[in-house]
Amino acid sequence: MELFKALTVLESCREIARHMIIPRRSKTVPLRDSLGYRLFEDTLSADDVPGFNRSTMDGFAVRARDTFGASESLPAYLDIAGEVFMGKDVFGAAGPGKAWRIPTGGMLPQGCDAVVMVEYTEELDQRTIGVTRPVAPGENIVRRGEDISTGELTVARGRVIRPQEMGALAAAGITSVKVEDPLSIAIISTGDEVVDAEKTPGPGQVRDINSYSLFGMAARVGAAPRLCGIIGDDYRRLKEAMESVITESDVIILSGGSSVGTRDVSARVIESLGNPGILFHGISVKPGKPTIGAVVAGKPVFGLPGHPVSAMVVFILMVEPLIRLGRYPDSEDEFLKDFPVTAAITRNLRSAAGREDFVRVSLRHQDGKVLADPVLGKSGLIATMANADGLARIPHSLEGIEAGDMVRIKLI
Amino acid sequence: MELFKALTVLESCREIARHMIIPRRSKTVPLRDSLGYRLFEDTLSADDVPGFNRSTMDGFAVRARDTFGASESLPAYLDIAGEVFMGKDVFGAAGPGKAWRIPTGGMLPQGCDAVVMVEYTEELDQRTIGVTRPVAPGENIVRRGEDISTGELTVARGRVIRPQEMGALAAAGITSVKVEDPLSIAIISTGDEVVDAEKTPGPGQVRDINSYSLFGMAARVGAAPRLCGIIGDDYRRLKEAMESVITESDVIILSGGSSVGTRDVSARVIESLGNPGILFHGISVKPGKPTIGAVVAGKPVFGLPGHPVSAMVVFILMVEPLIRLGRYPDSEDEFLKDFPVTAAITRNLRSAAGREDFVRVSLRHQDGKVLADPVLGKSGLIATMANADGLARIPHSLEGIEAGDMVRIKLI
Fold first, then answer.
1. What pLDDT is recorded for position A5?
2. What are the domain boundaries of chain B?
3. Which region holds residue B220: left if phi is over 0, alpha if psi is between -120 and 50, else beta?
């Protein structure tokens, strides 16, 4: 069935990348609603964080040198010059032999460069303390700008905003952020046998699974998915639908068409839409072999297999990176960053040299090791996907793996 | 500072669990919008999936026994009785020596029990094929109900809905789902020094980081967070705020108050609200030691440290499971399920026996191994959190770990 020699997943992605034009649109959102978006531009801090030398302990702010040599038997005696209150400016400046009461988080008086923990002081009277242990300059404080300094890159362009990035941006006073406007992903199910999930299928009919699972996958990685319904294996109707969809979306996903005739309809429609059209028809991956990859007017168009599992796997491999990064990984190493778990497979699995396999696995931990149990069951069954924690990769260089071999796993 | 002996994280969670009453409210959402919710009840399939014996190949539907003994030199000859069309009922029934043209996904005629791939047939004329290889009963087909059968549990109560669960539910015809109404989490920042992130801090003041990072963390795991603003270290004002918040929220998070005085205000307010009140004050964890845990009127109340990193770590350990599961993990094993990555730490790290440490790490892969580099920098700095991929756990039984030791990691 392949019009071209079957490419690997990475080669297929590179083919798409050579022709696609992924738009970079921005929008501005309040920091509070920014979770999961990708930053559109570098964010620089307008201020030092913290804005002052800050105590990390309850104790006394001092000049460190005034405590040098202090010990329990020979304390350093200091005058209590005042008290620091949270969130307040400090009056007076440090001088030889002076100490200020200071709470955790308080601002060090001018000239003080360390804090003595209250545990290492003894109060002799209301005006005098003895320090029983020396402190080094900088001890028990965070210096002005030590967390984030003025003009410093707080969060880099392209980073996905997690809760900690929200925190860092808040610290830098950035409460509205310019983010990349998510890619819009059009999702079309094809096939004369497919009916809406709300309907009761008649003889020979099946419910539309892919619209839901692909919608969920696109939404999970931050895209703006759009369900465009079910279209039968009809050249004219599919072409009409695609023509309207392609002007309104950044990426177009067709799924369905596992039979030769059906795949032909999708392929012919895609070819008719514009250049460069179909780049490959069939990739050396399992599941997901009969995938069509195309670019039309700069927009990636994917013809995913109708099998729900194959469709999800190919979506994970070829559409997810595009949504998450706005581009394809540069290298196998970058591609594999998305497979953070390493585990020992618990069964022998066959593969074919030159083909990359992705095996559904469930994970368990035993004696400090992570074990990946292949999920059994026929490959087309959606239930096997619901029972899986991850996808384990068998690289195309191998003809299989043996129980105990380590595999890289993407959590799904 | 501890009013009680410091508990471990798990012991602390158990203390909270003994007194808390977590509401189970449901709401119904369209399947399309169900991503990330937890199912409120078991979902049973009303139908068989697929609803008919279905071909997984392009070829001919046959009675397997009619092909037994067939070979290239001695093909089994069969009459072409008709053609199966996608999504259509089939007319006629199988009889000895009959075959139907069938596409992948097509419905097998009554009495057929296997499909011969087109590659293993030769068409002699329009009415006759030769089968050159036998098929076993069930070969190249998915049987009716083999994916999901009528009355079968499709997705169990309590499961978080991922894209594959959306697909399985769609397959079973369940297009609106009863899900658990997310817990509402009230988030209050305390401290005289804390100002809104939109403001430029004056001398001694710092911006409110925790409201944003905790809001993000709660939202990420599917809770309904509510920002309740910043309240100074004022007993009356904090008590008023807490009294109103506690009636409207399921879980209450205070953060702030790393100094003794500030913590006292939070503690006194929590104690004043009702029974059983404070259950522990200080846990044996780093960072996050000065955490207050309380239950008031069945609702968990957490007094998190003011340090942004400590607050996030304790949130991850003590609040996240509650949001994700609606309860605390039953065992250390279940607790550790949330730490799916195992990696080799790349530096020696000290800890204290009896204390559990959580170390920010960045991950890299090298020679088939996962390496965890501790993120350096003072522990209170939010920037260290933004540079981290995960939290590595040093169990309380250890006094430290050495470079090369394996650690469990939660991705953050």
1. 65
2. 9-25+182-334, 26-49+147-180, 54-142, 339-411
3. alpha
C-alpha A270/C-alpha B357 separation (Å) is 55
Structure tokens at B284: 């044996």
CB B103 within 8 A of CB B55: yes
For β-strands B276-281 and B292-296, DSSP reports them as antiparallel
How far apart CA B209 and CA B207 sit, in angstroms, is: 6
Contact B103 A233 (CB under 8 A): no
Burial of A365 (0-12, 13-18, 19+ CB in 10 A): middle
Residue with token string 């008086």: A109
The band of B5, judged by pLDDT with boundaries at 50, 70 and 90, is low
Q: Could you identify the residue written with the tokens 């006292």?
A: B264
Shortest CA gap A260–chain B (Å):
7
CA trace torsion B65, B68, B71, B73 (10° rounding): -90
Question: Does A147 sit within 8 Å of B214, measured CB to CB?
Answer: no
Token duo for residue A301:
């168009």
pLDDT above 70: residue B4: no
Instruction: Tell me which fold the domain A54-142 belongs to.
Output: Molybdopterin biosynthesis moeA protein; domain 3 (2.170.190)
Of B86, B202, B382, the CB nearest to A168: B382
**How does pLDDT run across A95-120, given as a tens digit for each residue?**
899 999 999 999 999 999 999 999 99
Using the beta-carbon criterion (under 8 Å), do B220 and A165 form an inter-chain contact?
A: no
Closest CA to A356 of A324, A396, A317: A396
Q: Which of B161, B197, B260 sits opposite A58 (nearest CB)?
A: B260
Confidence grade of residue A145 (pLDDT, cut at 50, 70, 90): very high
Residues of B in contact with A31 (CB under 8 A): 197, 212
Helix (H, G, I), strand (E, B) or coil at B380: coil
Tokens of B259: 């100094």
Contact A292, A303 (CB under 8 A): yes
Contact: B52, A388; criterion CB under 8 Å: no
Distance from the Cα of A244 to chain B's closest Cα (Å) equals 23
What fold, for A9-25+181-334? Molybdenum Cofactor Biosythetic Enzyme; Chain A (3.40.980)
Give the residue on A whose Cα is nearest the Cα of B155.
A386
Q: A140: buried, middle or exposed (CB in 10 Å: 19+, 13-18, 0-12)?
A: buried
In this complex, which of B36, B84, B207 lies closest to A173 when CB atoms are compared?
B207
- Residues B314/B305, Cβ–Cβ less than 8 Å: yes
Partner-chain contact B32 A215, CB within 8 Å: yes
The pTM for the full model equals 0.93
What is the per-residue pLDDT across A34-90, written as a single tens digit (0 to 9) for each?
999 999 999 999 899 999 999 999 999 999 999 999 999 999 999 999 999 999 988
Per CATH, the homologous superfamily of domain B9-25+182-334 is MoaB/Mog-like domain (3.40.980.10)
Give all strands (DSSP E) within B256-331, no chain letters: 276-281, 285-286, 292-296, 299-304
Locus of tokens 């009409």: A240
Mean pLDDT of chain A: 93
What class is the A26-49+147-180 domain? alpha beta
Distance CA B46, CA A240 (A): 35
User: Cβ contact (<8 Å) for A193 and B86?
Assistant: yes
CATH ID of A339-411, from 2.40.340.10, 2.130.10.10, 3.40.50.300, 3.40.50.720: 2.40.340.10
Please provide the size of chain B in residues.
412
The verdict on a CB contact (< 8 Å) between B105 and A163 is no
What is the C-alpha separation between A407 and B370, in angstroms, rounded?
A: 11
Q: What is the ipTM of this complex?
A: 0.92
CB pairs under 8 A between A and B: 328
